[in-house]
Amino acid sequence: GPNALCDYQRLLDGGPAERIEAVLVLGHPTLSRPVSRLLARPDVRIVAVADGSRWTDVAGLARGVPGPVEAVRRPAGGWLRAWREADAGRRGVRGPRDATGRKDAVASAVWDAHCAPGAPALVIGASDVIRSFDRCARPADRAPTVVSNRGLAGIDGTLATAVGVGIGLGGPVRAVVGDLTAVHDGLGLLHGVHETAPDVQALVLDDEGGAIFSRLEHARTAEPAMFARWFTTPQAVDLGALAAAVGAVHRVVDGAVELARLLAEPVRGCSLVEVPLLG
Ligand SMILES: Cc1ncc(C[n+]2csc(CCOP(=O)(O)OP(=O)(O)O)c2C)c(N)n1
Ligand SMILES: [Mg+2]
User: Fold this and answer.
1) Does 48 contact ligand 1 (Cβ within 6 A)?
2) pLDDT band at 183, cuts 50/70/90?
3) Candidates 106, 123, 135, 155: which one to mutate for ligand 1, based on the most atoms within 8 Å of Cβ?
4) Best of 103, 134, 185, 212 for a ligand 1 pocket test (most atoms within 8 Å of beta carbon)
5) Pairing state between β 45-50 and 63-66
6) pLDDT class for 265, splitting at 50, 70, 90?
7) Which of 34, 56, 89, 275 has the most CB atoms in a 10 Å sphere around its CB?
8) How far is the CA of 189 from the centre of ligand 1 (A)?
9) Rounded to whole angstroms, how far apart are CA atoms 129 and 210?
10) Backbone φ and ψ of 156, nearest 5°
11) Strands, E assignment, 118-233
12) What is the DSSP letter of 230?
């Protein structure tokens, strides 16, 4: 909807965030550190809406209430306006042209393409990829069909999820995943001879390993060689060979123009599209 705050991660680290007195928690909003920090603020009243016995309570501060809830008092207009204006100031601002900035640019382009009527369903992989979409997705007249695995937030089974979504919806699917996520579940694109093979495209954002950890606490404490081996776990898998092994068409998309061309084409058959983010 039009009141969604896109750049909420940055907004929560200053500005109107200091005036927050209470938070109503719906679902499991712990994807980003600024939200977890907000939910741990002792000066803020945390009310979690629960439809069962479990609710999100990062710091043991929440009071649970049974859902659904109904707003009985509309916030004063100035409050909403202040947040919307702070957010609007950032719209269209792109990050630096490093791998994260490129990932955000891909997420933006994919999101915008999927807001169009008739677009394929979108499966979003864990780790940095879902966080790029979280930063870059914009409200539109029509919301795309998006599926993402949460819970343990595993990188396993993501391409199998895309295949399942394709079979379940009976239509094409684009899965946007990190490189480790893709190699973890590459064989998920295989199917038995008696099985339906839906139209699935795996768009692999390749930054040669688990990039997310370089921005988490581990990176500040672990010694570099140990950090690379145990956290980044770089891979140099030949994605073309992986695609060939599962009978997928392989393609490399380099740069915004090629990406726009890919996004304008229908998703047909099984394909693995590599998007190099480094260099
Ligand atoms: C099954 C499983 N194993 C390990 C992890 C821990 N883990 C979380 S994110 C991540 C790195 C994912 O790397 P990639 O898919 O390349 O995404 P990037 O952050 O680089 O964009 C790993 C290994 C996990 N979530 N699930
Ligand atoms: Mg990666």
Assistant:
1) no
2) very high
3) 155
4) 212
5) parallel
6) very high
7) 275
8) 19
9) 11
10) -80, 150
11) 121-124, 146-147, 173-178, 200-206
12) I
Query: How many angstroms separate the alpha carbon of residue 234 from the centre of ligand 2?
Result: 8
Provide the CA 163 distance to its chain's centre, in angstroms: 18
Is the CB of residue 129 below 6 angstroms from any atom belonging to ligand 1?
yes
Residues 6+ apart with CB under 8 A from 11: 5, 17, 83, 86, 87
Please choose, from the candidates 156, 247, 241, the residue with its C-alpha nearest in 3D space to the C-alpha of residue 197. Answer: 247
State the Cα–Cα distance between residues 231 and 70, nearest whole angstrom: 44
What is the rounded CA–CA span in Å between residue 102 and residue 136? 12
All domains of the chain in start order, with CATH: 8-88 (no CATH), 99-276 (3.40.50.970)
Torsion angle defined by CA atoms of residues 90, 96, 102 and 104, in that order, rounded to the nearest 10 degrees: -20
If we measure between CA atoms, which residue out of 91, 103, 106, 104 comes closest to residue 139? 91
